[in-house]
Model the fold of this input.
Amino acid sequence: MDKAALYLIPVLLGDTSVERVIPEFNKRIVSELKFFIVENIRSARRFMKKCDPGIDIDSLTFYELNKHTNKKDIEGYLAPMKSGNSMGVISEAGCPAIADPGAEVVAIAQKKGYKVVPLVGPSSLLMAIMASGFNGQSFAFHGYLPIDSSKRVSKIKYLEMQSYKDDQTQLFIETPYRNQKLAEDIIENCKPHTQLCIAMNISCDDECIVTKSVKSWKGNLPDMQKTPTVFLIYRGK
Done:
């Protein structure tokens, strides 16, 4: 690390071993850095201990960046880089800055001309697209759909229309305890031949990624109440 850089460090997507999804290079970077911008300090520390059991956690400096962070404070988090120190960004799950507040600090780093280094690691969105059988050249991620029932149904119908209109894969996620209701709304409101991929616990031992038509899913939905899940819909053929 000759030049100060902002390293974007992917973490585990669930209860799985570090060796299964995190490259050795990443673990070395984690061991060498002294400054971190993290979404949650406690979970970041747990991940770092898995990467390097001998790491001296108490000697490290953490800046917490999440939905509660005052946006005016974010630029100050990069102060160590101004002094020539590299930093790491760690989110709660998967890749930093993807559906993650880390994007804000990355934008500031780019604006200031700092080197930004995205490290290889698990991304539930890309892995879901890979395994779905859907269009991997044109896709859109929409984050969380509306909580309000009528607005959610309208959004689902709109995304289905877009998948047919633009030949585009549509991805979205939900809070685990609302997964089942979201899946049921898709089944009740999409065309029977529209394709739905349900990707659960990606990269974990009980990973399950299955693509079927909406008609085939009806009455056969898995239990998703407590499981991190990515939903993908795509036009029927």
